């Protein structure tokens, strides 16, 4: 390319109903000399991130420049989005399947002992916290395709090796701390679990927080639809993944190991090729090469798909491992970046919601089983809750389009706070009448409230995700999202610590109180952010607006009459 703008074909509108408009930057066609250089996209926050800019008109002198920079939506084929969703589904499905299967496998290897599964889960979360900053820096600086490829291969190899270790442990049939071989195999499985957790997190952050923004750049409606569909995939896998592995493990635990291994190995090439095709078709996914590499290799997306792609991935991994330092592990520079960013308050509000036992996870399911509910009833309750959660992925995008992202976030967190307040009130009503915390009446009222509150939870999640995507710069997106993920893992660990401190189901009221307090703290933080951003928290009704306008006009008229009389009397005196 000679540095001049070449004539291009006019943009074509998408005609299919299922297509999502893709925003690409096309050069202006009118009155542009051939010597003007191409303007590269900047890393500044988008114009729509500042609500004060909404509805303002640009000057005539800046109109031509605005037109030359404005992304023009063109049609993106359904096959491209299908490949992106397929890759995301396979990554999420295998991660959820392995995460749920490990619980049944370890419970079979070490029966009547919760310590191994607790150490396993805590080690995974701790690794995600410790390596959050190096991972985020790698996502921001390395080639996008290299990052996602490495996450796919790392996740599959870790799962395959873990399945081999679990197969060996099942064959030994030895208890916890009864053999040095068992302890060594379990320790190796914990290390592999950390690798799998990091690889799955890299894939999730890279695709949801980075690739989606680039693919839908300049088209907010398309990005909201894509965010909602990918969250729908997450929730679908969250429901059916554990259910599938539970049914297989009920027949045979070894069969669950074989099924987990087979699904991971069978899907690796499909996911690998799907994400490569997406990278090929979206030129904006290419980024400038890091120092020490040829610029042409990274500016052209197709250059990453040549015969040297494997060596490039290996080089990037070695460079990333050499760049890890104690300063990065302590997250000092990244915490400064995170807390100094305008999007930190909504991000921290979302992270606080992970400090909860009211999520139909292991803690609450154990409480429900202690409340005289059987496994089938708990399974039905969990399925109904997931249906409510899925409904939020249809409701939230429509609300965002109608009332905006900020108000959707406020409405969603208010909905969650309201239902939880009702559920906790019902719980303590029966608790105050002498019922135990595990009484059926207390549990039923709490379950209904939590199920309805999940609609607000995921609506708020999608709203915050849109805010972060809008406001976080391209070269800081990975680090910001990684620090956010580390806070989410930290609060999730604290939630598990609550049931360690109060392990008796009859003491479940204290984890409930702390969980609700965390939700209200998140709502207060977001309300503070909203008031500081917009200058007000709630829109007054139309009748109040009319009354205020009349009062202002009357006071203006009275003041004008007084000033007129004063000026007349002054002129008479003079």
Q: Could you explain how this protein is built, in words?
A:
This protein is mainly alpha-helical and 574 residues long. It contains 20 helices and two strands. A two-stranded antiparallel ribbon has the order 1-2. The protein is globular and about 60 Å long. Residues 1-75, 289-311 and 562-574 have low confidence and may be disordered.
- Helical content stands at over 70%
Largest sheet: 2 strands, antiparallel
Radius of gyration: 28 Å
Note the gap between the termini. 78 Å
Based on helices, strands and strand pairing, what is the structural class?
A: mainly alpha
Specify the overall morphology: globular
The proportion of strand residues reads under 5%
Core attributes:
globular; 1% strand; 2 strands; single chain; mainly alpha; 72% helix; disordered N terminus; disordered C terminus; 574 residues
Q: What's this, in brief?
A:
The protein is an all-alpha fold and 574 residues long. It has 20 helices and two strands.
Topology:
Blueprint: E1 21-24, H1 60-69, E2 72-75, H2 78-109, H3 115-130, H4 132-141, H5 144-172, H6 180-215, H7 220-251, H8 253-281, H9 295-299, H10 309-322, H11 326-329, H12 332-339, H13 344-352, H14 362-370, H15 375-403, H16 405-432, H17 440-471, H18 477-501, H19 509-534, H20 542-573
Antiparallel strand pairs: 1-2
Subcellular location: Membrane
Biased composition (Low complexity): 52-64
Protein name: Solute carrier family 40 member
């Amino acid at each position: 390319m000679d540095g001049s703008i070449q004539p291009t074909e006019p943009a074509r509108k998408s005609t299919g109903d299922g297509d999502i408009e893709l925003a690409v930057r096309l050069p202006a066609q009118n009155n542009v000399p051939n010597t003007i250089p191409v303007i590269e996209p900047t890393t500044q926050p988008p114009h729509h991130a500042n609500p004060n800019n909404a509805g303002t008109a640009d000057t005539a002198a800046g109109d031509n420049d605005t037109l030359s920079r404005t992304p023009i939506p063109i049609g993106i084929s359904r096959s491209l989005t299908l490949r992106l969703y397929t890759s995301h589904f396979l990554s999420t499905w295998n991660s959820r399947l392995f995460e749920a299967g490990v619980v049944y496998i370890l419970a079979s290897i070490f029966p009547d002992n919760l310590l191994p599964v607790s150490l396993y889960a805590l080690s995974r979360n701790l690794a995600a916290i410790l390596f959050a900053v190096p991972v985020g820096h790698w996502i921001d600086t390395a080639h996008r395709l290299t990052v996602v490829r490495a996450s796919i291969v790392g996740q599959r190899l870790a799962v395959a090796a873990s399945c081999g270790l679990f197969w060996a442990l099942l064959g030994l049939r030895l208890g916890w701390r009864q053999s040095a071989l068992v302890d060594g195999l379990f320790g190796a499985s914990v290390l592999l679990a950390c690798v799998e957790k990091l690889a799955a997190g890299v894939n999730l952050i890279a695709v949801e927080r980075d690739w989606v923004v680039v693919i839908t750049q300049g088209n907010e409606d398309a990005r909201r639809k894509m965010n909602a569909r990918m969250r729908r995939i997450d929730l679908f896998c969250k429901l059916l993944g554990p259910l599938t592995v539970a049914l297989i493990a009920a027949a045979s635990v070894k069969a669950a190991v074989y099924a987990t291994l087979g699904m991971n190995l069978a899907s690796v090439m499909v996911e690998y090729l799907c994400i490569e095709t997406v990278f090929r078709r979206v030129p904006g996914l290419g980024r400038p090469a890091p120092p020490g590499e040829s610029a042409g290799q990274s500016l052209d997306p197709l250059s990453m798909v040549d015969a040297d792609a494997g060596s490039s991935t290996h080089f990037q991994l070695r460079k990333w491992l050499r760049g890890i330092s104690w300063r990065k592990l302590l997250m000092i520079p990244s915490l400064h970046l995170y807390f100094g960013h305008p999007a930190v308050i909504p991000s921290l509000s979302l992270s606080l919601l992970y400090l909860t036992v009211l999520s139909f996870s292991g803690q609450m399911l154990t409480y429900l089983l202690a409340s005289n509910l059987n496994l089938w009833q708990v399974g039905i309750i969990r399925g109904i809750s997931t249906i409510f959660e899925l409904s939020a992925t249809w409701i939230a995008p429509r609300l965002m389009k109608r009332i905006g992202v900020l108000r959707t976030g406020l409405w969603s967190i208010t909905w969650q706070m309201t239902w939880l307040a009702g559920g906790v009130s019902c719980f303590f009503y029966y608790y105050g009448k002498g019922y135990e915390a595990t009484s059926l009446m207390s549990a039923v009222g709490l379950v209904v409230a939590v199920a309805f509150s999940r609609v607000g939870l995921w609506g708020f999640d999608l709203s915050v995700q849109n805010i972060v995507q809008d406001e976080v710069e391209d070269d800081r997106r990975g680090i910001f999202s990684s620090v956010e993920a580390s806070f989410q893992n930290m609060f999730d660990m604290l939630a598990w610590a609550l049931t360690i401190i109060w392990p008796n189901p009859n003491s479940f009221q204290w984890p409930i109180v702390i969980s609700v307090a965390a939700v209200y703290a998140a709502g207060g933080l977001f309300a503070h952010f909203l008031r500081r951003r917009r200058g007000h928290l709630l829109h007054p009704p139309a009748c109040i607006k009319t009354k205020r306008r009349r009062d202002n006009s009357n006071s203006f008229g009275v003041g004008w009459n007084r000033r007129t009389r004063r000026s007349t009397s002054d002129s008479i005196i003079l």
